[in-house]
């Protein structure tokens, strides 16, 4: 099959783009239909009995199309509302909306593996911790990386975080000072952009030795080293978003078809360029850091350089760059998206904000904010209502809304349902976070639910950082950042939403479910 397609592509390139698209599309469509019709008739994994769209049972293309539209999570959620717990979303992929399935699909010791979905996230450098599918390689990498994100290690990162947040506050204070309104409110601005600047500058500092400079320049900019060695300035946030959309869509398609999608739809060609450009950001920053040296810095890159596997071997330069790229991806728009969503939900509910400020005021009485305007993590890390506000926003806006696919290594039984080896199962976090059987009023932002006696039961259906051996290794760092951000910003500023009638932020889904914009006005708070 691939050799036939390669021949078609070569011929199509001679005849012109339009003809090539038609020929290639016809060949691919015909191949897909024939292959999957046979697959459907044979039904090797016994999934035909489960409900779902007809085209999802016939071809992976249905799932890829939903991802291409940017609303896969929403489509799958509606299917679960229609059909119930089990929904077939691809010929060999069953989505299970049940909290009890989390341990079965993602838990420790069950031997499940990442599906070929993750191959679409491999860059031009090397496989990183996120997209490594081989269990032995993943174990090796995680042993090197996990200790970097232990709580004691993460505490050493806080001075870098504090420094960047101080620069952020200076910019926002100026917005308040420049207010043309007598009441002191700033002009309207898109808060999402600023949360992006903050998250990217912090992860740039931690992963590569210095911020990107987005806060200072008030712009989405980064240096990118192209494959030919030239260095150019490009928008990093935009590149990361395009890369996530592209890879998440490619991952839903059959592996053999992925290389040819750029000839069918120019959108894929743009996405591939962004994949390469994002790798170029990591190459440029790692090369600069290795050339200049890190001195006595205790940051992510220095820890990665010092890491050793079980044989005492350090990471190669390519592997080091791949892991730095992984941290850039994992620690940037995840944090910015979450920060934006948390601020939105708290600001949308004045009664919640009032209770949060009261808790912060009680804890921070007598603190000298002139000496350090950024609240220390140790000061607020155990505040129950602050934690509840953050958790509730992460429930309604989990960074990853999709069900992450896992291959079952052996016969798996879940509540009487049997799945043979090779079956692909997933648990959709967006739907899990909205099950009425768990949350009662799932569409309501109510932090108090996390302070109730049954809050431990809720955690079984709460997946903001995934679960099991492949869960987010940077959870401690993310929790520190979000806690420091929200405590500092809400204690220092009042927020207004330009459109308080919004039920939720407008979003689009790549690998992450990300806000598109969040228009706000701020004012210095008098306490």
Q: How many β strands by DSSP?
A: 14
Q: How would you write the strand order of the largest sheet?
A: 1-2-10-7-3
The CATH architecture assignment of the largest domain turns out to be Orthogonal Bundle
Bulk shape? globular
**Structural class determined from secondary elements:** alpha+beta
The biggest beta sheet is recorded as: 5 strands, mixed
Helix content: 40-55%
Q: Mind telling me the CATH class of the largest domain?
A: Mainly Alpha
Q: Number of domains in the coordinates?
A: 2
> What is the count of helical runs?
24
Mean pLDDT: 88
Computed over alpha carbons, the radius of gyration is: 24 Å
- CATH superfamily membership of the largest domain, which one? Cytochrome P450
Low-confidence stretches: none
CATH fold title of the largest domain: Cytochrome p450
Beginning-to-end CA distance, first to last residue: 69 Å
Strand content: 5-15%
């Amino acid at each position: 099959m691939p050799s036939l397609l390669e021949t078609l592509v070569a011929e199509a390139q001679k005849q012109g783009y339009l003809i090539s698209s038609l020929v290639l599309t016809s060949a691919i469509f015909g191949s897909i239909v024939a292959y999957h019709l046979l697959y459907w008739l044979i039904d090797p994994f016994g999934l035909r009995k489960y409900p779902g769209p007809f085209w999802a049972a016939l071809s992976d293309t249905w799932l890829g199309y939903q991802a291409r539209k940017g609303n896969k999570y929403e489509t799958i959620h509606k299917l679960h509302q229609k059909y119930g717990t089990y929904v077939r979303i691809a010929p060999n992929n069953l989505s299970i909306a049940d909290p009890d399935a989390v341990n079965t699909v993602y838990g420790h010791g069950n031997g499940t593996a990442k599906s070929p979905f993750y191959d679409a996230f491999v860059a031009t450098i090397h496989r990183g911790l996120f997209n490594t599918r081989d269990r032995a390689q993943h174990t090796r990498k995680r042993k090197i990386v996990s200790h970097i994100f232990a709580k004691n290690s993460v505490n050493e990162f806080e001075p870098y975080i504090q420094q960047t947040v101080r620069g952020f506050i200076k910019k926002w204070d100026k917005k308040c000072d420049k207010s043309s309104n007598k009441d002191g409110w700033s002009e309207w601005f898109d808060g999402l952009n600023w949360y992006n600047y903050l998250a990217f500058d912090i992860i740039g500092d931690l992963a590569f030795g210095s911020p990107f400079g987005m806060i200072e320049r008030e712009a989405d900019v980064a240096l990118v080293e192209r494959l030919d060695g030239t260095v150019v300035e490009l928008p990093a946030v935009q590149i990361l978003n395009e890369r996530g959309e592209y890879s998440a869509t490619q991952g839903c398609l059959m592996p053999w078809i992925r290389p040819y999608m750029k000839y069918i739809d120019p959108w894929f060609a743009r996405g591939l360029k962004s994949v390469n450009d994002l790798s170029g950001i990591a190459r440029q920053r790692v090369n600069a850091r290795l050339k200049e040296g890190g001195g006595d810095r205790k940051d992510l890159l220095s820890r990665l350089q010092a890491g050793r596997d079980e044989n005492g071997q350090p990471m190669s330069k390519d592997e080091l760059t791949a892991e730095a790229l992984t941290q850039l991806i994992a620690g940037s728009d995840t944090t910015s998206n979450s920060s934006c969503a948390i601020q939105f939900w708290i600001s949308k509910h004045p009664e919640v904000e009032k209770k949060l400020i009261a808790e912060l005021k009680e804890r921070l009485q007598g603190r000298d904010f002139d000496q350090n305007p950024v609240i220390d993590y140790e000061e607020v890390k155990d505040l129950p209502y602050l934690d509840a506000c953050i958790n509730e926003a992460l429930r309604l806006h989990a960074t990853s809304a999709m069900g992450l696919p896992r291959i079952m290594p052996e016969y798996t039984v879940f509540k009487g349902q049997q799945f043979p080896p090779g079956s692909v199962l997933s648990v959709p976090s967006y739907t899990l976070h909205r099950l009425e059987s768990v949350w009662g009023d799932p569409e309501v932002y109510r932090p108090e639910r996390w302070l109730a006696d049954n809050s431990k039961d809720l955690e079984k259906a709460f997946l903001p950082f995934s679960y099991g051996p492949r869960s987010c290794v940077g959870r401690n760092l993310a929790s520190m950042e979000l806690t420091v951000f929200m405590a500092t910003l809400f204690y220092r500023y009042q927020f207004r939403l330009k459109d308080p009638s919004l039920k939720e932020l407008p979003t689009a889904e790549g690998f992450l479910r990300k806000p598109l914009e969040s228009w706000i006005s701020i004012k210095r708070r008098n306490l």
